Structures are given as structure tokens and as C-alpha cells.
Amino acid sequence: MASQTQGIQQLLAAEKRAAEKVAEARKRKAKRLKQAKEEAQDEVEKYRQERERQFKEFEAKHMGTREGVAAKIDAETKVKIEEMNKMVQMQKEAVIKDILSLVYDIKPELHVNYRI
Prior knowledge:
Belongs to the V-ATPase G subunit family. The longest helix has 62 residues. The chain is elongated and about 135 Å long. Helix content is 87%, strand content 0%. The protein is mainly alpha-helical.
């Protein structure tokens, strides 16, 4: 009987050690997975920052800075407005004269649909 109990005790102890080893292996695996995930996130963030830097360089090279582009657009707009104002001043008298001549030149006549 004592040998059976001793054998059972040995089996229980071996099972306990095996469960501890499995638990430890699971912990190591979870730790490795977490570390790999963090490394992947770091790598993705570095890649994103690099691409952002490249885009900013490309943008600055081809388009200039945003302030520069805005200033250029403002200058072009002012020039176009000045040109339009000059054209208005040049054509103003002629347009007013044409409109007034059309308004003053009234030719009374009966409408084609009017029946007597």
C-alpha cells in the first residue's frame, strides 16, 4: 500500500511540475508575442514618420511652403482683380450708353397673339 501511495504521490508531483512548465511556457510565449507586437508597432511608426518626412520634402521641393503658396495665390488674385477693375472702367461708359439706348428706344407695337 505504501508503495502505491508513494507512486501516486510521485505521479501527482510529476503532473504538478509538468503543469508549472506548461504555465511557464505560456507566460514566455505571451511575453514574446507582446514584445513582437511592440516591435512591429515601433517599426510601423518609424516607417510612417519616414514617409511623412519624404512627403514633406517632396511638397516643399515641388510646391514650396504653404505660406509661400498662399502668398502666391493672394498676389495672383490681386492682379486679376486689378485687371478686372481696369476693364470695368474702360468699358463702363460704353455699356451704360448701350443699355440706355436700348431702354430709351421704345417701339410700341401689338403682340402677335393679340386679337382684335
